[in-house]
TrEMBL record:
This is Histone deacetylase complex subunit SAP30 Sin3 binding domain-containing protein. It comes from Cloeon dipterum. The keyword Cell membrane does not apply. It is found in: Nucleus. Residues 103-155 form the Histone deacetylase complex subunit SAP30 Sin3 binding domain. Residues 16-85 form the Histone deacetylase complex subunit SAP30 zinc-finger domain. The keyword Secreted does not apply.
C-alpha cells in the first residue's frame, strides 16, 4: 500500500491478474484467482475432507481459482448428502443446530435422567451440554408423523394448560 492507494495484489476489491494462492499436492496452482477467498472456515473444511490443499506462504493474498472453489464445494456437498441420507432415512432435511448450553443446568440434568444417559460424576454445565448434544443428534424423528399428530392434538384437545386453569375453549 502506498499513500492510501492499493496496488495489484493488495486490491481489496478482489484479485486482478493474481494466481490462486493454493499449493495442490506440492505444486503452486497457476490458474487465475477468482473472488473466492481461502478463509478459516474453508481451511477447516479442507482439513476435515482431507483434501491436499495448502495456502502458499509467499502469496500476498488468499484468493483461490474457480477449479479449487468447485473442488471444495463438491467435497462439502458429497459429505452432506451422505450424512443426511444416513441420518434422516432418505429425507433431505437438514438437522438444525440446537444450543443446549442456553438451558439451565437443572433442565440438562432432567434430560440426562429422562434418557438414562451415563456421564462421569458431577460434570460441568458445558460438559453436560456437549454430552447431551451428542445424544440429541442421534434421535431420529419421523417429521411428518409428528407434525400431523401435533396438528391433530391442537385441533382436538386444545391447550392442556388452558384446560388445567379452567380456561377451556369448549362451551359450558
Amino acid at each position: 500500500m502506498n499513500n492510501g492507494c492499493s496496488t495489484g495484489e493488495e486490491d481489496s476489491r478482489g484479485p486482478s491478474n493474481q494466481f490462486c494462492c493454493l499449493i495442490d499436492e506440492g505444486e503452486r496452482c497457476n490458474k487465475v484467482a477468482g473472488n473466492a477467498s481461502y478463509s478459516k472456515r474453508i481451511q477447516k473444511i479442507v482439513a476435515q475432507r482431507r483434501l491436499r490443499l495448502h495456502i502458499d506462504d509467499t502469496a500476498r493474498h488468499n484468493y483461490i481459482c474457480e477449479f479449487h472453489k468447485t473442488m471444495i464445494q463438491c467435497a462439502r456437498t458429497k459429505r452432506r448428502r451422505k450424512d443426511s441420507e444416513e441420518d434422516s432415512n432418505g429425507t433431505d432435511s437438514e438437522v438444525p443446530e440446537v444450543d443446549l448450553s442456553q438451558l439451565q443446568v437443572n433442565t440438562l440434568r432432567r434430560y440426562k435422567r429422562h434418557f438414562k444417559l451415563q456421564t462421569r460424576p458431577a460434570p460441568s454445565k458445558s460438559q453436560l451440554a456437549e454430552i447431551l448434544m451428542n445424544h440429541f443428534k442421534t434421535i431420529s424423528v419421523p417429521e411428518k408423523e409428528v407434525t400431523t399428530f401435533f396438528i391433530y392434538t391442537v385441533k382436538s384437545n386444545g391447550n392442556k394448560l388452558d384446560q388445567k386453569n379452567g380456561l377451556s375453549s369448549e362451551p359450558v
